[in-house]
Amino acid sequence: MIVVTEAWIFNGPIQHLLAMVFVAMFIGISYLFVKKVQDLEIQLVVLKEKNSVLKTESENLKRKVELLEISYKQFVDRSEENKIEDAKQDTPMVAFYANTVTDHVNLGVHRTLVFGNVITNIGNCYHNSTGSFVPKVSGIYIVNVQILCSPGYELRTELVVEGAVKGTHYIGDSTHYSNGGGMAVVHVDAGDCVWVRVATTDGENDIAWESSFSGFLLYSDS
Fold first, then answer.
1. What is the per-residue pLDDT across 111-153, written as a single tens digit (0 to 9) for each?
2. CA pair distance 150, 207, nearest whole angstrom
3. In a 3-state reduction of DSSP, which class is residue 191?
4. Does residue 189 contact residue 143 with C-beta atoms inside 8 Å?
5. What kind and span of H or E run contains 111?
6. 203: which residues sit within 8 A by CB, 6+ positions away?
7. All residues at 6 or more sequence positions from 104 whose CB lies less than 8 Å from its CB, including other chains
8. If we measure between CA atoms, which residue out of 116, 122, 146, 119 comes closest to residue 135?
9. Which residues pair with 161 in a beta bridge?
10. What are residue 208's phi and psi, to 5 degrees?
């Protein structure tokens, strides 16, 4: 059994006032809670909008980076092409190829072989009237000599640069056409004379028209 005293019982007006206070506190707390939720919802909307803006800006920035990468690659490619083009323009072009020995029968020792039919003469350094190649640019040259001799003859030829023998070739005695020659890598100064001449012979020889003399500049001194 619970004993209730008069101290525990509120009078009617006080109880009503307390109830009103509790209701007001509840309403105030509810209002604050709703306001806080609304504020959070507004902040969430703002954050979503900012996120959308940032996403758009990120995509735009990504496209700009891609465009910059493409532009840079194109710039590098053009630079490399320009370098190659400049190198081509700076590098002298010298090359020649000639065949068909003009005087080809019974040539004596040290007789120059004159290859009269000019196929290629870039730089105009080969002279088919003398059989001489006289470059205008100093550098390393690749020079090739091919001699085809008629059956039954024996012949030796020499590649000569400004009077110095740089290569020898043997065309052997055979019942068939025989071929001899070779390639040389030589340094030639501008204005030096390069030619092919008979080194030794048995007194009779006949050089076929397919014989050839050719060369080109590998790289210049400058």
1. 999 999 999 999 999 999 999 999 999 999 999 999 988 887 7
2. 6
3. coil
4. no
5. none
6. 106
7. 206, 207, 208, 209, 211
8. 122
9. 164, 194
10. -75, 155
